[in-house]
Design goal:
mainly alpha, Arc Repressor Mutant, subunit A, 6 helices, 3 strands, 55% helix, globular, disordered C terminus
Length: 152
């Protein structure tokens, strides 16, 4: 379906898919949600996001800056000081993503219980869900057929 904007994220050639990928990557979600709290210096943001490498955070911030979601401000000081904050579009996206982060955090006990039920069912030999079995994801390995070959 074509959107009124002329972009259709369901079309594999649509550039909106890349922006969705940037927004919904693990580090993109967490960086935007953190920046919703306040302006951060790079090292502060890295500590807040906790677990992301310096290189990956820098790449994530550059990508989000290119998408117009993050503003990077470098101050001509010694030592250099660089701060990151959200643009108006970034605040809008972060608001939506923060809702998702909050939802996941609130639902984690239930999600973890579902994981345990699923894992127990698989361990009991009940097999994967029908959709996964049809796609070739069975007990022989993800994405592998019965002989260990990729599904056709």
């Amino acid at each position: 379906m074509t959107m009124p904007t002329g972009f259709d994220a369901y079309d594999p050639a649509c550039p909106a898919r890349l922006v969705l990928e940037h927004l919904t990557s693990r580090w993109g979600v967490l960086a935007l949600a953190a920046l919703r709290e306040r302006t951060y210096r790079f090292s502060e943001l890295r500590r807040r996001v906790n677990g992301v490498s310096e290189k990956v955070l820098a790449q994530t911030l550059q990508t989000l800056e290119r998408d117009g979601l993050v503003l990077r401000t470098a101050y001509p000081e010694v030592p250099p000081r660089v701060e990151y904050r959200l643009t108006a579009s970034g605040r809008e996206a972060a608001e939506l993503l923060s809702g998702l982060v909050d939802w996941v955090e609130r639902r984690m006990p239930r999600i973890m219980a579902e994981h345990r039920r699923y894992d127990a069912r698989i361990a009991a030999g009940d097999g994967p869900a029908p959709a996964a079995a049809e796609a070739g994801f069975g007990a022989t390995g993800a994405g592998r057929g019965a002989a260990g070959t990729p599904p056709r």
